Amino acid sequence: MHGVWLQPDVPSICPRQRHEGRRRLRHQLVMPVTFCRQSRLLRLSSLSAHRVQTPTTLELKIMITLPRLALAASFLLALNAPVYAIGLTGTVADYGNPAPEKAAGRVITLGADSKYINVENGETVTIRVNGKAITWAFYTFPSITSFDLHTIAPQDVAAGAIRVYVADNPLYRGG
């Protein structure tokens, strides 16, 4: 059906003299057309027209909103990731970690009548109990102010019912 001519319903689609392209008509058919500037007519280049499926308003809103929601969700997860990484584990790591004896800032020797010891958060101390030594770097959460020494002592050390009181580090106190 070459040679069929259509009157264009819009002004020129191309500033050049001839233009091969696609034109969307009102009834949503897309047809390859050739534009002739001299006669201001559109000529069908082929009958291989096909229907184009256009998204509805709701689909457009979803297409715009969904990536924004995904971005917001990933941002919120990224902000909350450190919160889940820090927390009480129920292990000795909640009270600090073992340290070499050379790292100790002071040595505390406990006798048979000792009931408690005082340390500061961030302090490394060697504790001598019945001839055995424990060197510990105290790094506790702010919610932990005291605990029993036997929770961090090895099994071969008889720590008894000695309480460890952890004070705030003066370097980090406000004031």
Short description:
17% of the residues lie in helices and 33% in strands.
Spell out the key features of this protein:
alpha+beta, Immunoglobulin-like, four-stranded mixed β-sheet, 1 helix, disordered N terminus, CzcE
Helix content range: 10-25%
- Series of secondary-structure elements, N-terminal to C-terminal: EEEEEHEEEEEEE
CATH homologous superfamily identity of the largest domain: Heavy-metal resistance protein CzcE
Q: Which CATH-level-2 architecture of the largest domain?
A: Sandwich
- CATH top level assignment of the largest domain: Mainly Beta
Largest sheet: 5 strands, antiparallel
Number of helices: 1
The N- and C-terminal alpha carbons lie at a distance of 90 Å
Which secondary-structure class do the elements indicate? Answer: alpha+beta
Q: Averaging pLDDT over every residue, what do you get?
A: 74
Low-confidence parts: 1-7, 9-31, 44-50
How many structural domains can be distinguished in the coordinates? 2
Give the amount of beta strand, in percent. 25-35%
Which fold name fills CATH's third level, the topology of the largest domain?
Immunoglobulin-like
The general outline is: rod-shaped
Question: How many beta-strand runs?
Answer: 12
Q: What is the CA-atom radius of gyration, in angstroms?
A: 40 Å
